[in-house]
Amino acid sequence: MKGLEVQIYLIGYIIANAFALVLLFFAWKFVRLARLFFCVLFAWACWVNWRTALYTPQDYLGYADLAFFGIYKQFILGWFSRHIVVMVGFIATCQGLIAISLLFKGWIYKAGITGAMVFLLAISPFGVGSGFPCTLI
């Protein structure tokens, strides 16, 4: 997989997938605690993405080299490269809304879970950059 030869990517990859397996275990045995962990995870992702988009937006261009599909690479180096703050800001805001939705019940919770699944599936082609296959777990 592209990127695993870089030690920092390899370490992040191992941590992400180990964490995904822990979350899977908690989702199976301790559902409420798993919801809290997912809430914290999406809130943290919101904060990190907003901060990165505002201060070092060019960091996101590196994901082009890690993508499984050429269309993702073309998108990142094309339109996305000219609209990083807006696009990542939108994604980060959605991550924050997902985090909040996990604290509720009913349709808000279901909408948040649906958003989380769509998001995690959409980023899985980023390979090492998304910690694949943790996004599918």
Q: Could you explain how this protein is built, in words?
A:
By secondary structure, the protein is mainly alpha-helical. It has helices at 7-29, 31-55, 70-82, 84-101, 107-123. Helix 1 (7-29) runs antiparallel to helix 2. It is globular and about 40 Å long.
Topology as a string of helices (H) and strands (E):
HHHHH
User: Structural class, judged by helices and strands?
Assistant: mainly alpha
Count of alpha/pi helices: 5
Q: Tell me the β content.
A: under 5%
Rg to the nearest angstrom?
A: 15 Å
Number of strands: 0
Distance between the termini: 18 Å
The average pLDDT value, as a whole number, equals: 88
Outline type: globular
As a percent range, the share of helical residues equals over 70%
Ranges with pLDDT <50 over ≥5 residues? none
Q: What does the main sheet amount to?
A: none
Keywords:
137 residues; mainly alpha
Which helices and strands occur, and which strands form pairs?
Blueprint: H1 7-29, H2 31-55, H3 70-82, H4 84-101, H5 107-123
Helix pairs in contact: 1-2, 2-4, 4-5
Quick synopsis:
The chain is mainly α and 137 residues long.
